[in-house]
Amino acid sequence: MNLIDEWPERDRPWASRYMIVVSRPEVPSAAIDARARELISALREADAPADVLFGDPDEIAEEDVRVLGTNEEAVSASEGGGPRQGLNFIGTALTFLGVSSALVMLTRGVWQIDVELGPLCIVLGILGASIAANLAWTRFVAGSTGWTLVAGAGGLTYMAGCIWLAAAVGPGYLLIARVPLWALMIGMALPGVLVLLVARLVPRRPLRSAWADDEWLRRFRGSMRSQGVYGDVAREHEHSVRAGIDEGEGGYYVEFGHPVVFARSLAVDDNRAAIRRWRWSSSFQVAVPLLMCVLIAFSESFGAWRSTAMLFLFVSGIVAAYTSWRHRPAEQKR
């Protein structure tokens, strides 16, 4: 049974807004359910509307996020938290690409389409680079710098190879003739859906509970970098950690807990780090669609899809830029 259905009918809009705001990665789902049932019980006892008894749902939810949220949950649910989060990202990217490509084809009004090798290579190159970028970001968030560089370089090499192959074969190289549109649409959307279904079957990976001291320090440094902490501040944190550790008491993990969790807790109140993380994420969200738009502009392999695909990617980049700017962190005076 949906938890929203347990709320009084008059309060369901309030409850829906509350659930949207309180559902953050750092808040465990069990804690959200327990808190929601507390609010429902209070409503039934008071016999008053939720907006009168509790006030604004956004304010109540934000306060509950501060009370119920944990860094451990945020790390576990983040893109660096294991294969389930990575598969969710890949499945979402595949589904988005498949559905958007299907909509582009629908605008042509053609019910049978010739599949050419050039456009297919470019699509596969962009898709592979997106997956590699996610893998690199996942390792970066987890504080593993070495694998970040390997995944990033591999993705760029793969995309360059696909673009070279598309340019080598040129336009008009027919791979499959007269494919029904409905079959092509299913074929493009199905992989993403299957990956998302597989992701739901993968259990969440618990955080590690055993670390050697040198490995803990290495992951701690990487996590500080991934949180945007500047070098001088990061060195101060590391010096404090080294000064506070007593190896006879069991090492860094026993004293400070999980290195990624600890690094994030130190970066929470660092305004300079928050601004730096915003710049990174904004640049990525804007640069990726615009880069794809440029690649298609210099490619002759997309044929009639070229203008529509370029317009879609350009608008996506502009929307991402506007959304990021509206959610920029406020710069605090030091």
Summarize the SSE layout with pairings.
Blueprint: H1 12-22, H2 29-46, H3 50-53, H4 57-68, H5 71-77, H6 83-106, E1 112-116, H7 117-141, H8 145-169, E2 174-180, H9 181-201, H10 213-226, H11 231-244, H12 252-256, H13 259-267, H14 271-297, H15 306-326
Antiparallel strand pairs: 1-2
Structural class call reads mainly alpha
Query: N- to C-terminal separation?
Result: 50 Å
Instruction: Give the radius of gyration.
Output: 24 Å
Number of helices: 15
Q: How confident overall, as mean pLDDT?
A: 81
The proportion of strand residues reads under 5%
User: What share of the residues lie within helices?
Assistant: over 70%
Report low-confidence residues grouped into runs of 5 or more: none
Strand order of the largest sheet: 1-2
> Describe the biggest sheet?
2 strands, antiparallel
String of helices and strands:
HHHHHHEHHEHHHHHHH
Please tell me what the overall shape is: globular
Number of strand elements: 2
